[in-house]
Amino acid sequence: MFKLFILGFLLLSLSCTNVNNPTSSPTDNHTDTLSIDTAIYKSVITNEIAGSAYRKRAAAYGLIINGDTSLFQCIFNESNSNGNITLYLNNNHPSTSYQQRFTELKHLLPIAALDYNMDSLSSISFGRFIEWGDLAVKTSDDFFVKSTNTYKNLHKDFSIFLPQSIFGKEVNQLLEPYQLKIKNASLEKVFITSKENYNLNNNIETDSTKVQPNIIDCITWFTIVKK
């Protein structure tokens, strides 16, 4: 079960300036502007699911743009034992580009921060790495260029590389207003997949002829700490 709240309309054209570098997108087409007709909704999650016994409270936040509910959500989950907060990014909709998801996050996080203490944010789940589209392509390409081994230590090497990558930099810029940063990456099931699999899973703008034959995929978590 869940309870749905519409938190209000955002006036005029919503925009959010990147405090570090407003032109930091790897594809140079990152926009922070949303439609004039935009509302934020909050769904209070009360259903019993795996792990819910350890959950104090949880809520999903998303946008309604020009009357259409966005496919992207961010879900805040507060632990019943220690008060730590985990942010889950609902990333199961490849029709939504990574640029659009980051733009929506920049507008959703300040609203969620009214309900949840961002100082307690301890981890973020990004789901499958490959589903972050152009950002995953650029990050993976950079790793292959800089890596000199035969990927025998792929899990370890990519775990070290990811927080310092362009992916990590985008996330740190998102967290900057809350004085938070990535501490480290925790990855599961790291493997190399094909370009064909990538194209099936994403809304991409990168020229397919410029995408490397192989791309890294994994389940991606970041541990978050105060700066």
Spatial strand arrangement across the major sheet? 1-2-3-4-5-6-8-7
Beta-strand portion reads 35-45%
Distance between the termini: 37 Å
Helix content: 10-25%
Q: Can you characterise this structure?
A:
With 227 residues, the chain is of the alpha+beta class. It has one domain (2-226). The chain is 23% helix and 36% strand. It has helices at 98-112, 133-146, 154-161, 166-175, 195-200, and strands at residues 2-10, 38-45, 55-65, 68-79, 85-90, 121-128, 180-194, 214-226. The model is unreliable at 9-31 (pLDDT under 50).
What labels would you give this structure?
227 residues, single chain, eight-stranded mixed beta sheet, globular, alpha+beta
Topology record:
Layout: E1 2-10, E2 38-45, E3 55-65, E4 68-79, E5 85-90, H1 98-112, E6 121-128, H2 133-146, H3 154-161, H4 166-175, E7 180-194, H5 195-200, E8 214-226
Parallel strand pairs: 5-6
Antiparallel strand pairs: 1-2, 2-3, 3-4, 4-5, 6-8, 7-8
